[in-house]
Amino acid sequence: DAAGWDPTQAENENHGSSEMMDRSLVDDIMNDDEADREAEDEMEALTSVAEQAASQLAMGQCAIRRWGACSDFCLSPDQTREFDSLREKLKTWGNAVHAELVRYRHHGGADSVF
Q1: What's the rounded Cα separation, in Å, for the pair 103 and 49?
Q2: Which residue in 17, 73, 80, 83 has the fewest CB atoms around it within 10 Å?
Q3: pLDDT of 34-76, one tens digit each?
Q4: Measured between alpha carbons, how far is 93 from 99 in angstroms, rounded to an integer?
């Protein structure tokens, strides 16, 4: 069935409108102001969310540090369990926020959200 088939046949044929279509595609890609504005708005929203997440994480870290500064004998067993649980959650949240900030920077975000 493949006898006489030329894999370059489509490249060698003159389709006439192909050049016009290519030019139109390039114009759409290069001059898409609306898409540029949407991308800028999205980046601003991501920056705002990243700043809020980083701020909340820092606040949580400060609270855990203050709580951790208490002597062990000052905390009841329930408070110790709650403190340990919150400290583990903070680590998880910190890792998640850090991973998202790395991903955000990889997609063209700023080096710092502060």
Answers
A1: 13
A2: 73
A3: 777 888 888 888 888 888 888 999 999 999 999 999 888 899 9
A4: 10
Sign of the torsion formed by the C-alpha atoms of 43, 44, 45 and 48: positive
Nearest 5°: the CA angle 111, 36, 30 is: 115
- Helix 33-68 vs helix 77-106: crossing angle, to nearest 10: 160
Q: Are 67 and 79 in contact (CB under 8 A)?
A: no
CB atoms closer than 10 angstroms to residue 50: 20
Predicted structure pTM score? 0.55
Let me know: does 105 contact 51? Beta carbons within 8 Å.
no
CA distance 112 to 50: 9
CB neighbours of 111 closer than 8 A, spacing ≥ 6?
A: 105
- The predicted model gives 25-41 an average pLDDT of 72
